[in-house]
Specification:
The structure is a homodimer of 403-residue chains.
Chain A (H helix, E strand, L loop, with lengths): L4 E7 L7 H12 L5 E7 L2 H6 L3 E3 L5 H8 L15 H13 L2 E8 L1 H16 L5 E6 L15 H21 L3 E6 L6 H4 L14 E3 L7 H15 L2 E6 L32 H13 L5 E5 L3 H4 L6 H20 L4 E8 L3 E7 L2 H4 L19 H7 L24
Parallel strand pairs in A: 1-2, 1-4, 4-5, 5-10, 6-8, 6-9, 7-8
Antiparallel strand pairs in A: 2-3, 10-11
Helix pairs in contact in A: 1-3, 1-11, 4-5
Chain lengths: 403, 403
């Protein structure tokens, strides 16, 4: 007999364009299980749980859910709280008080860690409860799963942003630096390459947190590219590090730390500006511009991967199948086959909870300033349909006066 | 009898998402006129003319043209050259050498000025030539016309960007500052308001170059909004000025000037960072983030107003009707009627060439930190279909332990 009680859904960490798909996947599937007495949503993730800030989602009209599913950002709101053991104990106690027997938490590896601690608190107290981690992160840095819901849509935004600014840079040539989100993993920055079509399309250079960043090498790379193409488009991860392993951006953002001890990298244009200034001062190139793509990467309204949408919905739905249907705890994973099909499985919480992954070496070219075809093969299916740009193809006219 | 000879098309100034629609409108319409012997395109605007850097567009396949029309940025490439009289004389001489009798130039008011000077050079030399200015600018600051092709698509990008980051700001509350392009006119920054749907949707504050910006007033506005909503989303024009009328951003970007004498404002995150730092230091608000929307506003691939596309195509087509069909020089304009229909007309080059316009007072609210409904009514039809986001609407659950 299956465990009877309430289901609770919450969203943690940075929003994505499809995290609501996962939440709605959980809610709609949970409605089909008679063991689920009510479906609660916590406002602001785990913070909403300890404050009993719950919404009753049991009877929300399906049309409202579907409209929210299609909206970016975390519709139940999020939190940067990183629960310690005492915090997780409180989560468990609140769950117990409300007869919550199924807990679904959408988040990254830290959220998987919270899931694990809460599950252990429940177990230690002899309280039957299943805890499911529903993966999401634009960083694409979770273990076990082939990739993470949220990444494909952010990657699509980055790919289309660089495809567009590359055209802009053709029209008004110079150096363009675009700074992309990603603290330790370069997957999102690498996605800047996915919109390349013509052989001389940018980004011509891509700098990832997986390789030590040197201003000297950067400068010579830029000069070399500029000499070849008369212009240079560059994608730089906000997480690039110096020889000591310190994030270069951290020197410019005032050192503000979040609850995870992470120094603020996003929400500032300082890294891009520093790099642009360096090129202006150390080369003869006149026109140097830097953009920091910022929060639009995860929240822009109207740029979403249809593949990512389907997968995000499905990890939520499968989470309920595993948690309620199979009476298990764990983290939902995706497995790839062929080019390209996905099957869903469950792994243990502890296999996801701790270390995050980085880009494998095979995705980074030897010179450390670009991505390989293996990366393109890996990432291209995830972004779904990409908008495409076309250059004009016309013959030149013979000169008369300037012959 | 109509003047026989070649047609020349060129694109100047900052790219837009639909400037290629205008170019293709010119090319396809010019192909229908037997007076047009060949159709040339200048690479990099007027710079391409004086260097005789011409493409022969006469026989480019229509499918290639249509694909280019759907691509953002200036497909013929652009220039920041601002022709003086000697430069315009050279333009005219090159046109004469190539038997160019019709010149179509897509650009802003400076480009209209170049058109006028070239037309005068031709007239003074007794060389028959018609010069048509095809309007484009994301700044929407041209005289006579109701609005400018290019604005609607950039406005759509800005509206959807702010609609998205507003959801992000709901999920992780704090202060969010988004810096928007626009040197003297606030139209594009004002477009941040077009994605608002719920009564407490941001941007809650909008700062335009038409009003003097005060850091003190800004700070108190932010604190007041934060007290009311627990969060604050702000759209700021890169062109905001202090009491002396100087652009505040100019203090941070190194003072680089273009050929028009304009100090660089875009391509740097410094203004946003300064405003964020000011709020961090002068209020008790913890989480303050700034994004500078940058070149994506005019070049992002895959965000275009379908209304803007049609209008940009049509101003190009009508340019040929006026220039070739009616044997006139001038600037193509759009006139609005009802809600919403557009008719096309021709005005004199000098009525557009000089002063640019700013946002009229009726579009700016009295406190100077937001836009009026009149602005929304004016701008909403221009962006076409807007993506829409939906919040969840569910009842709260009664607390048990925290009662």
């Amino acid at each position: 007999m299956k465990l009877k009680g309430k289901a609770l859904i919450a969203q943690g960490g940075g929003p994505t364009a499809v995290i609501n798909q996962s939440a709605v996947g959980v809610i709609l599937e949970a409605r089909k299980h008679p063991e689920i007495t009510r479906i609660y949503g916590a406002r602001h993730g785990v913070n909403g749980i300890i404050n009993e800030n719950f919404l009753d989602l049991t009877d929300v009209p399906t049309a409202n859910l579907e409209a929210m599913a299609a909206s970016p950002s975390s519709g139940l709101y999020s939190t940067r709280d990183k629960p310690d053991e005492a915090y997780c104990k409180k989560i468990f106690e609140i769950c117990k008080a409300h007869d919550i027997r199924y807990f679904f938490y959408c988040g990254g590896n830290d959220s998987a860690g919270s899931c694990q601690t809460v599950a252990k608190e429940a177990e230690d107290a002899g309280y039957d409860m299943y805890v499911i981690h529903v993966p999401k992160t634009i960083d694409n840095d979770l273990q076990v799963t082939d990739h993470c819901p949220g990444y494909g849509s952010a990657a699509k935004f980055v790919a289309q942003a660089f495809a567009g600014v590359d055209l802009d840079n053709r029209a008004l040539p110079g150096v363009y630096i675009g700074v992309v989100m990603g603290r330790h993993a370069g997957f999102l920055t690498a996605a800047a390459a996915l919109g390349r079509k013509y052989s001389d399309d940018g980004p011509h250079l891509i700098y990832l947190p997986e390789r030590t960043f040197s201003l000297e090498k950067f400068t010579s790379d830029v000069v070399k590219t500029f000499e070849e193409h008369g212009r240079c488009v560059i994608a730089v991860s906000e997480g690039i590090v110096d020889e000591s392993g310190e994030a270069i951006a951290a020197k410019f953002t005032g050192g503000e730390k979040d609850d995870y001890g992470n120094v603020q990298l996003s929400g500032s244009g300082a890294l891009g500006d520093m790099l642009a200034d360096h090129i202006k001062k150390n080369t003869k190139i006149d026109r140097v511009r830097a953009d920091t793509l910022g929060y639009l990467q995860r929240s822009f309204l109207g740029c979403v991967s249809e593949v990512d949408q389907v997968e995000a919905r499905t990890v939520g739905e499968m989470g309920v199948r595993f948690g309620v249907g199979q009476q298990k705890s764990g983290s939902v994973t995706m497995k790839r086959s062929g080019n390209y099909a996905i099957s869903y499985d469950l792994t243990t919480l502890d296999s996801v909870a701790y270390d995050a992954i980085e880009m494998p070496d095979e995705y980074i070219c030897e010179s450390g300033n670009n991505v390989t075809d293996a990366f393109i093969s890996y990432a291209r299916p995830l972004v779904g349909t990409l908008a495409e740009a076309t250059l004009i193809d016309a013959p030149s006219v013979e000169k008369i006066l300037n012959k």
